[in-house]
Design a protein that fits this description.
single chain, 252 residues, 8 helices, 78% helix
Length: 252
């Protein structure tokens, strides 16, 4: 599968190639096809396409940013819940030491499973799920001796269920939310727009440089959208620092 940078390069090649293609098409067209009336008609058509493109870019950017923020919030909730479970077990008593050790192992593996580029060895999400179920089994096996321990056990089980719920949410969102048909049509529309620019622009160095910079900017916008849609890898990603801070707090 292509990386975000690879897709960005392809978008740039399509858009800038369309602009250059327009300049060559201009040279091949008969003079009566390049009248002011023809130019006005084409500008009207590309204006409609430009409006649709702007709407799609705005929609995709808003969707990617919303997805990025949602997953960041879910991760913050996950780590805060893990710390809460650990503190509840610490107040329960020394008999929860095994469950707390398993919880710490779960947190460490979960960090490696989410931020795979930072992991020392490959970790599957399934292995973290097994550890979380083991933690819940240890919690259910506790035999409270008083009301305080009973309350702590119930709360720990409740919060562990929230951790499991967030885990499934993150798994379902791991493939990204960007609709590829939107992206394909967007690239097509941008290519047509830039081809129209090249069609009625003189072929000189200034125009070529301007089209190059504009194409690079458009490809950069698409690259930004793709980066936001994959928040655990690439240049723009959710920081793992809060997760490591939570891991350092466990077991104390």
């Amino acid at each position: 599968m292509l990386s975000e940078l690879g897709i960005g390069v392809i978008v740039f090649a399509c858009v800038f190639g369309g602009a250059l293609g327009g300049t060559f098409i201009r040279e091949a067209l008969p003079k009566h096809h390049l009248t002011s009336e023809t130019e006005s008609a084409i500008k009207l058509g590309t204006g409609v396409i430009a409006t649709m493109s702007a709407l799609v870019v705005g929609l995709l950017l808003a969707s990617a940013k919303s997805s990025f923020d949602t997953r960041n919030a879910e991760l913050n909730e996950l780590w805060s819940n893990v710390i809460l479970i650990d503190h509840q077990l610490a107040h329960y008593g020394p008999e929860t030491r095994e469950a707390r050790d398993l919880l710490r192992r779960y947190a460490a593996l979960k960090i490696d499973a989410i931020w795979r580029s930072e992991a020392s060895q490959p970790v599957t999400d399934a292995s973290t799920w097994v550890l979380l179920e083991d933690v819940q089994d240890r919690l259910r096996a506790l035999a409270p001796q008083n009301d305080a321990q009973r309350w702590l056990k119930d709360k720990a089980l409740e919060v562990s269920s929230d951790v499991a719920r967030i885990r499934w949410l993150l798994r379902e969102q791991s493939e990204g939310t960007l609709p590829m048909p939107f992206l394909l049509f967007l690239v097509l529309w941008l290519t047509v727009i830039f081809m129209s620019f090249g069609l009625f622009a003189p072929r000189n160095t200034t125009v070529i440089v301007a089209l190059f910079v504009c194409s690079l900017s458009v490809a950069g916008a698409v690259f930004l959208i793709l980066e936001l849609d994959q928040p655990f890898a690439g240049l723009i990603r959710i920081s793992s620092a809060p997760a490591h801070d939570a891991l350092a707090d466990l077991g104390h």
